[in-house]
Design brief:
Elements: E1 3-8, H1 12-30, E2 35-39, H2 43-59, E3 66-70, E4 72-74, H3 84-93, H4 112-126, E5 139-142, E6 166-170, E7 177-181, H5 183-188, E8 191-196, H6 202-208, H7 216-223, E9 226-231
Parallel strand pairs: 1-9, 2-3, 2-5, 5-8, 8-9
Antiparallel strand pairs: 4-7, 6-7
């Protein structure tokens, strides 16, 4: 437990292109088998989604077998500029014509407790579960913040949610009200890919991959068999 694979790139675009190529390769090998992923927001996600869309169009790949969930969402309507769903829909899901039945957004416009409950039930309905009853994603696509947070699991990791599937949280950055996957769900994913890009994240990344790191990403790495970290820092 606690291993990570660190891959360095020269730019956000090179990082995004590499991640897109690796994911498309996974999908092609799966040959249409059901595939469940969680998406994240952030600037690098925008570049990553665009890279995936370009490859899907050029190679005429179908995403009909992929079910899309979210690692976290802000408590805003789906057409709000801060919505992680809107970013993914505009850059990836809409352009590649993903069927509506495969898009399982978090209803950020609902009361947080209701939104978390509905999102939890939806993931449990679609994904298989492990022996502990935790739903299993094929890949959790994550970013990392300047403080080492992943999804909306903010430091210190000891106080972040460690039970449930999706839960409401109050973030340490705006907008404060959010819904997030819990540590157990991300830890149980078959793969976790962390795309780390942007200024001011060098210290958090170094801390996260240290054996005694104190960030939420460090905690995640310690709890998983392997975490893939792709960065241009």
């Amino acid at each position: 437990m606690g291993k990570y694979l660190l891959e360095r790139f020269r730019s956000p675009e090179e990082l995004a292109n590499a991640a897109a190529d690796k994911w498309i390769e996974r999908l092609q090998k799966a040959q249409g088998a059901a595939h469940r992923v969680a998406l994240s927001g952030g600037r690098i996600s925008r570049v990553f989604f665009a890279a995936v869309t370009e490859r899907v169009r050029k190679r005429r790949i179908s995403l009909d077998a992929v079910h899309f969930f979210w690692a976290d969402e802000r408590c805003v309507p789906p057409n709000h500029d801060e919505s992680n769903f809107l970013l993914a829909y505009d850059q990836l899901l809409g352009p590649t014509r993903v069927p509506d039945v495969n898009i399982h957004r978090i209803h950020g416009e609902d009361p947080p407790a209701t939104a978390a409950q509905l999102a939890s039930a939806e993931l449990q309905r679609i994904a298989p579960s492990n022996t502990a009853g935790v739903p299993i994603l094929d890949i959790a696509f994550l970013g990392m913040g300047e403080d080492g947070h992943v999804a909306s699991l903010f430091p210190p990791p000891e106080t972040a949610p460690h039970t449930g599937v999706y839960v409401p949280v109050i973030a340490s950055k705006p907008p404060p009200e959010r819904i997030t996957l819990t540590f157990p769900v991300i830890e149980s994913a078959r793969e976790a890919w962390v795309l780390v890009s942007g200024a001011g994240k060098e210290e958090a990344l170094c801390d996260s991959i240290a054996p005694d790191g104190k960030t939420p990403l460090a905690h995640l790495i310690r709890q998983r068999p392997l975490t893939r970290v792709l960065t241009n820092i």
